[in-house]
Amino acid sequence: MLVDSELASNLTSVDIDYSKKWYSKGFTVESNISSSC
């Protein structure tokens, strides 16, 4: 995965992972930012 430096500075609280399980394969993107409405 390639990300330019401007976008990378906004990804400090994002987890990007790759799963290779028998029932699901692919990238997952999760935010660590909690928000209240």
Poorly predicted runs of 5 or more residues = none
Radius of gyration: 13 Å
DSSP strand count: 2
**Quick check: average pLDDT?**
79
Secondary structure: helix percent: 10-25%
Give the helix/strand class: mainly beta
Question: Mind sketching the topology for me?
Answer:
Elements: H1 5-8, E1 14-20, E2 25-31
Antiparallel strand pairs: 1-2
Could you explain how this protein is built, in words?
The chain is mainly beta. The chain is 11% helix and 38% strand. Strands 1-2 form a two-stranded antiparallel ribbon. Strand 1 (14-20) and strand 2 (25-31) form a beta hairpin.
Brief description of this entry?
The chain is mainly beta. 11% of the residues lie in helices and 38% in strands.
Which characteristics define this entry?
single chain; 37 residues; mainly beta; two-stranded antiparallel ribbon; 2 strands
